[in-house]
Amino acid sequence: MEAQETIKKLQTKEFKKGTILLRPGEYSRYAFQVLNGCLKSYIVDKTGKEYIMQFAPEGWVISDMDSYVNKTPATLFIEAIEDTEVILMNEPFPSFFSDISSGNSLELIHKLTNNIIAANRRMALLLSSTAEERYLNFLDTYPVLAQRLPLKLIASYIGITPEYLSEIRNKMTKKPGPFIS
Amino acid sequence: MEAQETIKKLQTKEFKKGTILLRPGEYSRYAFQVLNGCLKSYIVDKTGKEYIMQFAPEGWVISDMDSYVNKTPATLFIEAIEDTEVILMNEPFPSFFSDISSGNSLELIHKLTNNIIAANRRMALLLSSTAEERYLNFLDTYPVLAQRLPLKLIASYIGITPEYLSEIRNKMTKKPGPFIS
DNA sequence: CGATTTTTTGAATCATATCAACGTACGTGG
DNA sequence: CCACGTACGTTGATATGATTCAAAAAATCG
Questions:
Q1: Which CATH number is correct for A10-93, 3.40.50.2000, 3.30.110.30, 2.60.120.10, 1.10.10.10?
Q2: Which among A62, A109, A125, A157 is the top mutation candidate for probing chain B, defined by the most B β-carbons within 10 Å of its own β-carbon?
Q3: What is the mean pLDDT of chain B?
Q4: How many Cβ atoms sit within 10 Å of the Cβ of residue A173?
Q5: What is the tens place of the pLDDT at every residue in A81-131?
């Protein structure tokens, strides 16, 4: 690496499907920017059930933000659900997102704001909607992921069991929605 | 108002308990910083049920962020649950939070980051916990609000009916937790 | 004090989970 | 290319957490 250079060295890495990149209790050294493939972050409750917090397909960034930013022990798992290539981002937050000194912190602020808005939408959905509504919303919001991910993972993301999602889906094919050619 | 002055004029206002400060469909011109009293933001589903998104007692800021930042129609109600005095903040986001040019955008970034972390905690709780666990978490996280707010509002915040929260509370007094003198 | 709002209680019901069993698809190694 | 093992999806029976509705009791407020 050249001295005096301000060019960031982008460290990339490949993970096989099923690889766990972060576990609860560890100190999260990286945020992961996905180049191709897909990661998920999730928590596991005392009974062993998984709840997916986020999917990160190509272009997305995923991390245990609390652990990463505040240097606290992680509470999330992060795991590859496909063979996945990532950029490891390990500069102190928020420098890797934007160069604060150069005034494009505005861009970061914009991203963070959008993240908050999205989180609030999901919270509202979890608070006020039935399983079926959450599933329909998922299809609507992430049509590509809906194609690509196994039902099981979608169920975990919307907070229901795979069995019940299977039932919902079954019901939907019988009593179909508006037909889109 | 003096020309050339950079001093922000703080516009304050008082609202009686029960006053609605923002309704869905309106364009949110303000974020509200609470000086004393308490506000809530909430959504109402098609059946008329309320789900509280946020409480804002003294010191907190509350808004329909999406509407306020992006100039879209609001989806939230904001309402005074006590007589409440607020600062009306109506400068373009994010200027009122911090003066970007003067380098304390870092402070704003910090606040936004904390907000995201908190939102993620609540999402995890909604996804993975029972009503009782969410109630205990609320007692733990907002002990002061737990004293101050009617049960009904707490129920709405944790996403259950008041009847069921009453039942939970009742059960808890019979089978008490660890005794704190 | 009366009027309104909040909390409690109980019974019936509903949405969703659990468990177990079976069917299907899929990927890998022979 | 087949066969097998493993993961995934479906189905049905039963259980449970939480809602609904109605009504009474308790608290709060003008």
A1: 2.60.120.10
A2: A109
A3: 89
A4: 7
A5: 999 999 999 877 766 666 656 557 888 899 999 999 999 999 999 999 999
